[in-house]
Design goal:
CATH superfamily of the largest domain: Nucleotide-binding domain of ferredoxin-NADP reductase (FNR) module
Number of strands: 12
Radius of gyration: 18 Å
Bound molecules: flavin-adenine dinucleotide
Shape: globular
Mean pLDDT: 95
CATH architecture of the largest domain: 3-Layer(aba) Sandwich
Distance between the termini: 41 Å
Helix content: 10-25%
CATH topology of the largest domain: Rossmann fold
Strand order of the largest sheet: 4-3-6-1-2-5
């Protein structure tokens, strides 16, 4: 029988899988020994605590959930920023169990049965909550109509490229990746430049009929919000998760 989904209160997890996605971003999968399934909506985040009694270290950071609610583990896409918390993740290994997770939290929640036509605007690791949403759409077999514009600096920064290509085939998602710092010889033939109002209008002509979701660093999220407002999208319709 499937475990009943729960909310977590400082529950111990171990790292069961690590994958280096790009030079600066890794995927971390956390599992509980009892295969707890967490009750959350895609778009929400968890507080992850690193706790090492031997060095009296206790650090906690917020991370958007990248896995789907249907899965028996939690995945996060984390930019290895060499900060206090991420320095521990830099050297983390499969089996490490000094992690305690609490949550979920947040209003940036998505329900495929309700949000049938959406515009996802992702910047860098801001892809994380959208991976959760897209994975749920696929697992539920939902026909939610998704247009996603995903902004990265260089072609080698595309996170989960193979899975995104597969999701484009398996779901009703149209993905446009845009590279903001293309270099001669990097082989990139796709879209370039920042996402702005003109790019949204050109790539997503029916944007006005879609619920917009924004996730990424503060500067990205603010630019996306300003662009949408300038295009006449009501502020109350814009859903944004800002990490700054
Ligand atoms: C709701 C929410 C969801 C989030 N989801 C995600 C997510 O899915 N993925 C993700 O990667 N992040 C996410 N974040 C950000 C995350 O919580 C952390 O802030 C981030 O991982 C950095 O933590 P840190 O302790 O390593 O950096 P901190 O030590 O807190 O440092 C903060 C910043 O300062 C910089 N810095 C630190 N020390 C130095 C130094 N000596 N010199 C120069 N710069 C320095 C770091 O590079 C870092 O960018 C989210 C934040 C929020 C609020």
């Amino acid at each position: 029988m499937d475990p009943v989904p729960v909310q977590l209160q400082h529950k111990q997890y171990f790292i069961s899988y690590i994958n280096k996605e790009t030079p600066d971003v890794s995927l971390f999968r956390f599992e509980a020994r009892d295969a707890t399934k967490v009750d959350f909506r895609p778009g929400m985040f968890m507080m992850v605590e690193y706790c090492d009694d031997s060095t009296c270290t206790k650090l906690s950071r917020a991370y958007s959930i990248a896995s789907a609610p249907q899965q028996n583990f939690l995945e996060f896409l984390i930019g290895l920023a060499h900060g206090q918390f991420t320095s521990h993740l830099d050297t983390a290994k499969v089996g490490d169990d000094k992690y305690y997770i609490t949550g979920p939290y947040g209003q940036f929640a998505f329900t495929p049965e309700v949000n049938k036509k959406v515009l996802f605007l992702a910047g860098g690791t801001g892809l994380a909550p959208f991976m959760s949403m897209l994975r749920e759409i696929k697992l539920l077999g939902s026909d939610t109509d998704v247009c996603m514009l995903y902004s990265i600096r260089c072609p080698n920064e595309i996170i989960r490229k193979a899975e995104l290509d597969e999701l484009s085939r398996q779901t009703n998602m149209k993905l446009s990746v845009t590279v903001t710092r293309p270099q001669p010889g990097d082989g990139w033939t796709g879209e370039t430049g920042h996402i702005d109002a003109d790019k949204i209008k050109r790539l997503v002509p029916d944007y006005a009929q879609r619920t917009p979701y924004i996730c990424g660093p503060m500067a990205f999220s603010k630019a996306m919000r300003d662009a949408l407002i300038a295009m006449g999208v009501p502020t109350t319709d814009i859903k944004a998760d800002i990490w700054g």
